Amino acid sequence: MDSSQLLGITTFTYLFASFLYIATLVFRSSRIGAFASWFTVAALLIQTAGIGLRWIESYRMGIGHAPLTNMYESVVFFAWVIVLFYLGIEWKFKTRTIGAFAVPLAFLAMAYASFAPINKGISPLVPALQSNWLLAHVITCFVGYAAFAIAAALGIMYLVKSYSGSDSGGKASAVLPALKTLDDIIHKSMIFGFIWLSAGIITGAVWANSAWGTYWSWDPKETWSLITWFVYAITLHARYTRGISGRTIAWLSLIGLIAVVFTYYGVNFLLSGLHSYGSG
Amino acid sequence: MYKNNSLWQFFASVKLALLILCLIAVTSIIGTVIPQKEAAQFYVANFGASYAQIFQILDITDMYNSWWFLALLCLLCFNLVICSIDRFPGVWKQVTGDGLEVPAERIRKMSTQASWSIDSPLADARTLIGERLKHKGFKTASKSDGDSLVLFSQKGNWTRTGVYLVHASILVIFLGAVIGSLGGFKGSVMIPETAERSKVFLFGNKGVEELDFTIRCNSFDIEFYANGMPKEYTSSLTVIDQGKEILTKSIEVNDPLTYKGITFYQSSYQPSQDFVVGVTLPDGTTVKTFAAPFQEQVEWSEQQLTFGIINARVRGQEIVSSKLWFSDGSGDPDTVWIDNGQSVDLKRQGGTYRVTVKQLYATGLQVAKDPGVWWVYIGCGLMLFGLYVAFFMSHRRIWVLLTERKHKTEIVMTGSANKNRPGFEKQFADLSELLQNGASET
Ligand code: HEM
Predict the structure, then answer these.
(1) Residues A143, A256: one domain?
(2) Which ipTM score applies to this complex?
(3) Structure pTM?
């Protein structure tokens, strides 16, 4: 058994769990819901084992480093954090409906990692990437991104429910959590993500300073992460100081996620910069 | 009062902040799409003459240092300062405010509350409750109010300043950036092995910075992985200040050398056509290294040694092996092929000389002096701390009204928190449970 097999199994288990969560929503069955949760937990464990094994494999190859250093590995980690974060919400808020939106995201991330033409091998690190700051940077950024992804998933739920006739109407909307609850969890996810993104930008700056003597050079990736940070700063201020909530915040959670995706993905493929390691 | 001034209101408003943040976010995109700091011809070739001219006028070619972008950043800071001055006094009042000043009617009307009574006189009840609250970290102050006694206790009053710590941190970071750009420099220097330099070429054609010390590259080394990717670049550097060797350090990418506030980062390297020849005398301990240009004679005159590289085999830019010519002034000179980086023992009349030959590299160093970087780091730390305080900590206040009625004491407990109300409700419930029945726990 090697790590890529484990991660392959993970991908399909997330797919299956996604169907289960959607079925839970459609049939309103808590028995299916329990299955969905257990499958997701199992997939998370398999994925954890897969990531751990990949780490061990890199040591066996004599180039040992944490599995967080290229596009493939970071997308896998992203999916892992999304699911961990989602399970936390499921447990804390006692609702499974969010799973129908969040777990498919994890599946999509894993499917992208597995099937897109990106380098899936374990490769050694060029000198600039051999830094503990890099690890701290990747982990903090992706925890933030995962929280924003969850916020956006909730934002979609909010908008679906809100536009299909508020709390009272619509069949589909009756099973979704109350708008107030959604709004609250969206806000909390954004706050959580904002702290981690701030830490991500800061650790990135410290790393750049230790490698090149410049903590900020306005390269496209840095700039886009700052733009993303501004989007969420704007959202928090709009909500906190101007009392804006509901649909506007839900839309902003989507705009924020677009900025996140562009920062992580678009910049590598559409623009050029220091972070080209991600495009491999 | 200046606060009623409409200009003040304008600069103190969060609406303006939202506008500025949007403007910064949107305009920042420009510089990620249009390459920055290229030569003028680049823009003419890629965007056409008329666009190139517009770019020039609006400083789009170096937009993050342009007057209008810096003006936006200044405006943000100004907005932040005015906004904080505008609001901080109110927040400070709540931080330092005395909960005992809150009128009893208001306390009784608070939505989070619990009430019960106990069979002991007021004085005993007061001690009991005070102690149990203290046990949970809530120190109490008290005041009598008519026939009742009010106990007040709070936690985290200072956390109301969290948002202001975040805002201050942004100013600190900007301050650090300004200090760095006024008092520092960034440049680079190439130092061939065995050579010394004390000049740094500043980035952006800003001339040369003369250091008041000298830096020598003793040696440079590259390690490769099995697949040919570079694994590590290492330069051994020595700082020489006023003729004295002060310190020697091996630097790698991510592990620079700092002296007198100036930091040297490993950033690149260049193979040259020259050689480094290391000679160990027959005594086995005296070693000296020389830079030997291709096909030029080198002398170690105190030892009457002459040598040079007379031929070499290359692959691409890399030297594979080289042919050494060596003489100690007596007998025929030796000539021998040596693989790059290897050494040979030459038996001469005076003893055995060990000679090492390798290709000479120049190490490329990035050089930076940034006296503002610690301000930036302090600002960053402050920001993370402030965000944590602003988001996850709250100011929780608890009042307990004690009223004596016929050897019994009636108790009303109320509380409020400025954030995370559900969390507070739970804490409040636990606390009131403890105050009522907590004898076993105390
Ligand atoms: C990049 C810049 C900024 C960042 C990162 C930032 C960050 C924050 C954060 C994290 C909060 C707390 C929000 C919450 O609890 O949900 C906040 C609140 C606030 N911010 Fe900012 N802020 C920035 C710029 C500004 C500016 C320029 C203003 C100027 C008017 C401003 C005015 C406020 C106000 C008035 C509050 C509410 C404070 C209170 O309740 O006392 N912020 N800010």
Answers:
(1) yes
(2) 0.89
(3) 0.87
